[in-house]
Amino acid sequence: MSETAEATAAGEHENAHEHGDQAGPAISVRNLWKVFGPKADRIPRDASYAELSQSELRERTGCTAAVRDVSFDVHQGEVFVVMGLSGSGKSTLVRCLTRLIEPTAGSLEFNGEDVIGMGADALRELRRHRASMVFQNFGLLPHRTVVDNVAYGLEIQGMAKAERRERAAEMVAKVGLDGLGERRPGQLSGGQQQRVGLARALAVDPEVLLFDEPFSALDPLIRRDMQEEVIRLHREEGRTMVFITHDLSEALRLGDRIALMRDGEVVQLGTPEEIVANPADDYVRDFVRDVPREQVISVRRAMRPAEGAEAKTGTEVAPDTLVSTAIETVARTGEHCRVVEDGRLLGVVDHASLLIVVAGLDKDADPEDAAPEDGTEREVAAV
Questions:
Q1: What's the pLDDT at 378?
Q2: What is the DSSP string of 238-292?
């Protein structure tokens, strides 16, 4: 396990407490491996293989480690995003969570229950009732109406026809397809078809929703609409979600926390703000290089101690206020902002401290270092 992964696993209990996860994690993964190839089970057992790159491992053993010694917890009610480039292992990982792909080694718990040790009946119960998957390929039945597609999982569960159609109609309305319940999939747009897939997953009332790059085939505007739909549903229901994507902007928009994968390993796990503000290595740093920092980082990372009368003047902002919002306030009022939480002053932010964050400089750097080299002034309002 990498140093980053070890630190991630060590901090899970503290993170769970901060997240309010008193009942334990929804999903707990420890030292999970998925190896493809001959005698795959020998790879996790032999420490000498852990230091090998993917190409070296294939050359020496004929095996590919799609998931390598991965550990993390998914807290109750959070949107946990796993992202990475093609071939990073993210889709293999999400399929391991319900054993659609059998892990090679490691432990996996679903609300405290051992998934690896589940028999066929318990595993079937997990997949039918407790965890629902939304795939990139909509997988709709073309000869069935929207309502009957949504009701399909309930039919598999054995629910009576009238009851399941009533439940399906409720889900159709929930995802914004009211009035389209009797249409066939071929009469819908791509975005509408994906909403049907989402409604079908919701219909069985799962404890956890698993999304495997569900929006990657959609046009940008439709994709954004579907992201908004996920955000809305999560806000209304608070359901635990695991979301797989290769798109950084999508990950930053949806995720409470993000696990960034490379070559089967988690190279960094943290909140969007933590990953953008403190990338773990050059790979992550390159990944987030073009992210507008002011739209992800909060004023908590930009504030400094108040000086003199600053403690009693300036607009109040919460510590989780985005730097972009604070910039607008500073530009509009022409003075600093006070960062206040529960009536307690934490610090202040002004044009200089906010500019340091936008420029990606160290918090203790000289604000003049953020100025253009030609000596011209750079107004915060223009950032």
A1: 32
A2: --EEEEEES-HHHHHHH-SEEEEEETTEEEEEE-HHHHHHS-SSHHHHHHTTTS-
Structural domains counted in the chain: 1
Tens-place pLDDT, residues 273-285:
999 999 999 999 9
* Closest of 35, 63, 97 to residue 244, by C-alpha: 97
d(CA 265, CA 68): 5
**pLDDT tens across 191-213, in order?**
888 889 888 888 888 899 999 98
Per-residue pLDDT, 222: 82
* 187 CB neighbour count, 10 Å cutoff: 12
- Helical segments of the chain, H only: 3-10, 12-18, 42-45, 54-61, 90-96, 120-125, 146-150, 152-157, 161-174, 190-203, 220-237, 248-254, 272-277, 282-287, 323-333, 351-359
Q: Tokens 């960034």 appear where?
A: 260
Residue 218 pairs with which residues in a beta bridge?
none
Domain ranges, residue 377: 295-382
The count of C-alpha atoms lying within 13 angstroms of the C-alpha of 213, restricted to the half-sphere facing its C-beta, is: 18
pLDDT band at residue 157, thresholds of 50, 70 and 90?
confident
The CATH number of the domain holding residue 373 is 3.90.1280.20
In the DSSP assignment, the letter for residue 186 is: G
With contact defined as beta carbons under 8 Å apart, do 33 and 107 qualify?
no
* Cβ count within 10 A of residue 39: 10
Is 360 a domain residue? yes
State the pLDDT at residue 327: 95
297 in helix, strand or coil?
Answer: coil
Would residue 44 count as lying in a domain? no
Q: CA nearest 259: which of 95, 136, 131, 94?
A: 94
- Looking at residue 144, the DSSP 8-state letter turns out to be S
Residue with tokens 């739209």, as numbered in its chain? 295
Tell me if 154 sits within 8 A of 230, measured CB to CB: no
Q: 353 and 302 in contact (C-beta within 8 Å)?
A: yes
Specify if 319 maps to a domain: yes
Tokens of 282: 């050059």
φ, ψ of residue 169 to 5 degrees: the values are -60, -35
351 domain residue, yes or no: yes
pLDDT tens, position by position, 298-326: 999 999 999 989 999 999 999 999 999 99
